[in-house]
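User: For my dataset I need records formatted as: sequence, then structure tokens, nothing else. Please produce one.
Assistant:
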Amino acid sequence: MGYNIADVSGNATGGPNDWGLTLDLSDPSATTISGDFDVVSLTSGNSQGEATGGYSFSALNTTAWGTLSFNTVTGEYTFTVDRSAIIQSGSDQVVSFTIVGTSGGNSDDDTVTINILICVARGTMIDTPEGPVAVETLATGDLVRTLDGPPQRVRWIGSRRLDRAALAADPSLRPVRIAQDAFGPARPARDLVVSPQHRIYLDDWRADLLFGEAQVLAPAKGLVNDHSIRVDTQAEEVEYFHLLFDNHEVIYTENTPTESFHPGDYTLCGLEDDVREELFALFPTLQSDADRPPVTRPALKVWEAAMLADAS
């Protein structure tokens, strides 16, 4: 044939017949992603201009996550994401389509796959007196519902973002995905994605039987059962949010009671240096273990949480 069609936009990776793009919704302005196909030489890889017979585009494999527009003469295309639908889904999504270029009586077809990322915790709904809101929209001073009393004001918000390379270098940082209804109807209301050490509030007779405490906080990684609670091995990148209150609180994430950020030695070490320095600058007393607020419920170790999961 002597030629191939290829995405020459610089936004896509892969080729020669399969192309990938990534749309990261952690950027609030991210609403579209585009590409452009040309005819390219099979030998040099250089663009030879547009396909003389034009281009044809298939429909998206699903219309649930956005819409595709395209130009059959220039080979340009734009995917417009439905941000609210993606965030409501609670997980990363994938859309794809095929494009066929015809030139000199010959045709070549390629596949374009678009990975839509929401990052860990982005879009996770936190209960407030005004109703559930996405965690990334919370600000210092906002009120959040708590299990043990009236709503409390957020004193500090931190976050840590891990890209593909960081997750590959340390798989222990991969998020844990808790399936909808894993702890009962609508708990969580949608899939809940948390960091491995994030602790879930459990009120269970098994905890009383095993540990003498009916109400405990169990690290998510200890509850993994490879069924309703799994390590998310497919995540391309994640962002963990930390909500600090005057006291350690149990708050509602996706209608599931989980802990707020507790500034213990382990969690403080997990923060990036500049984030930890910011926290200490705002709250100098947190540098002393004696001045840190106590944990609101007995906290299980990972192996203890695993015992509880096995007994369930």
